[in-house]
Amino acid sequence: MANVDAIVNAANPMMLGGGGVDGAIHRAAGDKLLEECRKIKALNKVRCPVGEARITLAGNLQSKYVVHTGGQSTDAEIIMKCY
User: Fold this and answer.
1) Of 1, 19, 39, 69, which has the fewest Cβ atoms less than 10 A away?
2) Looking at the annotation, which residues are catalytic?
3) SS3 of 6, please?
4) What's the pLDDT score for residue 79?
5) What does the pLDDT look like over 22-81, one tens digit per residue?
6) Is the sign of the CA dihedral 31, 1, 25, 65 positive or negative?
């Protein structure tokens, strides 16, 4: 049973996990989250561009969904688009 509806993840543009919190979320969620991320069509190898968000099922997490935000920018206007 999910404890929360969604977890927001500051994802890298590929949405394949990585370091820091993004990597920790992927490790905790297991292979199901990675499969969900791979279902998202990549445009020029980017699944979640800066300033956008994508939603997937949460795999093994105590959450229904993961909202992946592409927010690796210092431009406040671009980051606000994620939300």
Assistant:
1) 1
2) 22
3) strand
4) 63
5) 999 999 999 999 999 999 988 777 888 888 889 999 999 999 999 998 766 666 776 666
6) positive
Residue 71 φ then ψ, to 5° = -125, 35
Asked if residue 34 lies in contact with residue 25, where contact means CB atoms within 8 angstroms, the answer is no
Q: What is the structure's pLDDT at 75?
A: 66
User: Domain 4-81, what architecture?
Assistant: 3-Layer(aba) Sandwich (3.40)
Would you tell me the crossing angle of helices 20-29 and 31-39 to the nearest 10 degrees?
A: 110
Q: Please give the full DSSP string across 45-76, using - where no structure is assigned.
A: TBSS-TT-EEEEE-TTSSEEEEEEE----S-H
Instruction: Give the integer Cα–Cα distance in Å for 66 and 16.
Output: 13
The pTM for the full model equals 0.82
